[in-house]
């Protein structure tokens, strides 16, 4: 099996950095292209009427945080590594599956805390759904020291 496109699911969790480093290192070692997918979960962009924040403003904050995260994670990549970013909106597992298909990913890399097994992946309750439906192998990277 050959891995040419390695998709790495990222979010703001501590295990994200370790899983991202593992995925980027693997891509560099194999001469593969890497992709970082950070899903903008619109359910979290509800705004706060009491604070005067609209849905659009809350969504803009989520987008800015995601872009900042991707910039931080870019710094982990080996110079010269081909790296793509994906910022879909919606339900995380469904959006990751859509990016796998659209980008033709050969491998998905996700992190886990190691405390609750595979089902405590970054995607939370959607992890089992993702593992069952992904049309590519899934590499689960445990958090160091977990």
UniProtKB/TrEMBL annotation:
CDD domains hit by this protein: USP-like (cd00293)
InterPro entries assigned: Rossmann-like_a/b/a_fold, Universal_stress_UspA, UspA
Annotated signal peptide: none
Gene3D superfamilies for this protein: HUPs
Coiled-coil parts of chain: none
Record domain UspA: where: 3-142
Family classification: Belongs to the universal stress protein A family.
Protein name: Universal stress protein
Organism: Hymenobacter cyanobacteriorum
